[in-house]
Amino acid sequence: MLRKALLLAPLLLAAPAMAHSPYLKPNMFTPDAKRPHVTVEASFAEGSLNPDVAMKADKWHAVAPDGTTVALTPAAALKDATYLEVPLAQSGTYRISSGERTGRLAKAALQGTNIRFLEGAEDKPWPSEKLIEVQSVTRADVYVVHGKPSALPAPAADFGIYPVSDPSDAYTGEVIRVKVLRDGKPVKDARVIVEDAQERYAAKKAAPLEVVTDAEGEAHVTAGAAGLYLLLTRVRAPSATNPNLWISNTATLTLEVLPQ
After folding, report:
1. How far apart are CA 10 and CA 45, in angstroms?
2. 74 within 8 A of 83, measured Cβ to Cβ
């Protein structure tokens, strides 16, 4: 897997851009115990969680409350979105995930740890820069509680954003705790962008909230309004086997914040 080809250092904790970010959005975050499934929308969008480009993945899966992993096959694949029907055979907390997705390979110019993506054939590295390629790897997650919440599924080995506090117990004005992990280890100083999906309707647009992880990889988020939020983080690192290749890992987590 690509993540195995990364050097432990240096890591470039890139400022994430929300343009066409991957997301998973269930039709219900807390379905009652009698409901046998949820439907999950998977797409790329610019923070609004309105589908724009359908997400494709080879590793769709759900982690059930007992820790077992269930492979998922899309129920529908449209131009703007992919739809998953996730069976809920157990009571408790599920993690639904795209798994790691290998995206596009882009040409870029590297100076130190600064990466500048090249636009078109006429855009060339400057004399002080080195030509490299950047491989995009993305992951999107969302948590659904069937009936009553249970212990959170153990974090995957993949780079990702994982909740510490119960994601079904997120309320306005209260702290929501998440961790950024790679291979089960905390990522310090990772920038986490918090995009309010309702911001597109605001008369006066506000900049997305940005928080930074501590030494334990933990970040605290407090939402001022109820609704859906997309958390995104990105880390870039050089390949251990190819000095001209960097891996850009992007992870998102969709949260529902409830009113008090």
Report:
1. 30
2. yes
